[in-house]
Write a structure and sequence with these properties.
Helices cover 41% and strands 14% of the residues.
Length: 244
């Protein structure tokens, strides 16, 4: 993050990004503009505590050209939650699983798998907007959650998709509920193979099915994933899309 173009501390940036997601139809630039109108150009965790629900209600209403008492389609409960997030009282999803220590070689013959998630231990995120990636080290007989990586800072990156690719750049496979074509191409060129499961589901069930594929007869895309060029991998992904 470039402090010259975005005068906001890292922790404050995470809170602001999460708060914007808590309020329907409130984009990150819109919330930043509102906060800067109250706090000035510099935003940090200390001055965020000066923001109130009334500030949000009045400020967002003014941006929409509405009166204070009109329904903005956001909801007072969502604004209350956003303020708690800005104040640092809601740090994260309390149902998040805990990552375990891992050292290279702990799980022989394993691959690294990222799962796009918005809540708990679930595959329920879109590549370009999920809150985090759950990172598993997986072999045919063992799996271990080795990381929970927040993607909130991607909202402040010049190239959001590239930021996300770099965030999971050590992974071989990515599970998402949705990903666009250009983003999928970027993921594949980062040597990561994306798999869409539109219905999502518990992460451990997804990992279990992946392990079954490893143990039984790996599908062609998995058998080839580590031994082909990015261009061939992209063609393989497109072929999988056509089969779906």
């Amino acid at each position: 993050m470039d402090q010259r173009t975005m005068p906001i501390t890292q922790e404050a940036a995470l809170r602001v990004a999460l708060a914007s997601r808590a309020m329907p139809n409130v984009t990150l630039p819109r919330l930043i503009a509102l906060l800067q109108s109250h706090l000035g150009e510099q935003i940090d965790t200390d001055n965020l505590r000066a923001i109130t629900v009334t500030n949000l209600k009045t400020g967002l209403g003014s941006m929409d050209g509405e009166e204070d008492d009109e329904d903005m389609g956001i909801g007072i409960d969502a604004m209350k939650l956003a303020v708690r997030i800005l104040w640092g009282e809601v740090q994260d999803d309390e149902n998040l699983p805990q990552a375990e220590p891992y050292a290279d070689g702990d799980i022989p013959d394993s691959l690294r798998v990222a799962i796009a998630s918005d809540s708990g231990n679930e595959l329920n995120g879109h590549f370009g907007s999920c809150l985090r990636y759950l990172v598993y080290q997986v072999s045919a007989t063992e799996s271990r959650l080795i990381g929970v990586r927040s993607a909130l800072e991607a909202d402040f990156a010049e190239d959001k998709n590239l930021f996300r690719c770099q965030l999971i750049g050590d992974c071989h496979v990515l599970y998402v509920v949705s990903i666009g074509g250009p983003a999928a191409a970027k993921v594949i060129r980062a040597d990561i193979f994306p798999i869409k499961l539109p219905n999502g589901g518990p992460a451990l069930e997804v990992i279990g099915r992946f392990q079954q594929a490893l143990a039984d007869s790996p599908p062609p895309w998995l058998a080839k994933i580590l031994g082909v060029s990015a261009d061939k991998r992209l063609r393989l992904y497109n072929a999988e899309e056509e089969d779906d």
